[in-house]
Amino acid sequence: MANLAENLEEEGSRCRQVARTALGMVLRRLEAESDRGVVSIERVRKIARTLACDGALLSVCCDKMEQDCAADFSARRFEGMRNDYFGRVVVRPFAGELDVGPEGIDRRHLPQFFTALRMMLGNEVHGQLVVRCNEAAARHRGLGRRVDWQGFYADPDVLAAFETVAVALAQSFGRYDIRKEWLLTIMNSNPKAGLEFTPRHKLRVMKAIYSGEFIQTVLTAGRSHFLERWGEAPEKLFGPLLVRLGL
User: Fold this and answer.
1) Can you give the C-alpha Rg of the chain in angstroms?
2) Distance (Å, rounded) from C-alpha 31 to C-alpha 39?
3) What is the pLDDT averaged over residues 106-130?
4) CB 125 within 8 Å of CB 222
């Protein structure tokens, strides 16, 4: 684990790099303008005003730094999501759709999707599923504390968590058109999330969740067991939604 000094060294590192670059540019300009190593305060002020108004120079200094900062922030955010095991379970079916051109799902929409899902599940059930997935990850963590993902995704608790999500979605979309509009509103509630989350994006996500692989997994567990858990046969519970999705 990184100690306090290491953490402090990491914090603001990109900003310190920008500051060092800017100071280096100013120093080189002062050296060029100096007379035997001396620069008058009036000359310093003039150089400062000139540099502040030099749009091309500032672009060279700042544009790439801004892109690097955005990349760093995104990397840190998604690194944190790597340990969101319940989130990984939910996203796995449509992971291949993420950031794949304009038709793909922008990763920046995932927080909104998780918010909508928690609202459909309810806080208590959502919390229980998070715990079950965390415990499953702990069971499948091996050397170097790396998770055996194949074993994790095949874990009965993980399969049960995903089934619970699929059931909650199907029940919520009983009134399909109303729920669809509600979901689109939630998904587009953060203007910084990226491109608009469209009905086509929604359809791609839902189709991936209710893929043939999922249906086969549910049916493999046994129709009678599903009926016992949910009080309805899988074809009755999922049928209307699958029809609307064209599956």
Assistant:
1) 26
2) 8
3) 92
4) no
Distance (Å, whole) CA 191 – CA 187: 10
**Opening angle at CA 94, ends 129 and 188, nearest 5:** 85
pLDDT band (50, 70, 90) for residue 2: very low
Could you give phi then psi for residue 151, rounded to 5 degrees? Answer: -65, -35
**Residue 10 corresponds to which amino acid?**
E
Residue 160 CA to chain centroid, in angstroms? 23
By CB neighbour count within 10 A (0-12 exposed, 13-18 middle, 19+ buried), where does 125 fall? middle
Task: Give CA 31 to chain center in angstroms.
Answer: 47
Burial class (CB in 10 A: 0-12, 13-18, 19+), 180: middle
Q: CA-CA-CA-CA torsion for 108, 114, 120, 122, nearest 10 degrees?
A: -150
Supply the pTM of this predicted model. 0.64
What is the Cβ-side half-sphere exposure of residue 247, based on CA atoms within 13 angstroms?
Answer: 20
pLDDT at residue 75 greater than cutoff 50: no
Q: Judge whether 157 and 133 are in contact, CB under 8 Å.
A: yes
Q: What is the pLDDT of residues 121-159, one digit of tens each?
A: 999 999 999 999 999 999 998 776 788 999 999 999 998
78-83 long-range contacts, CB within 8 A, separation 24+ = 78/107, 81/110
Query: Are the CB atoms for 199 and 177 separated by under 8 Å?
Result: no
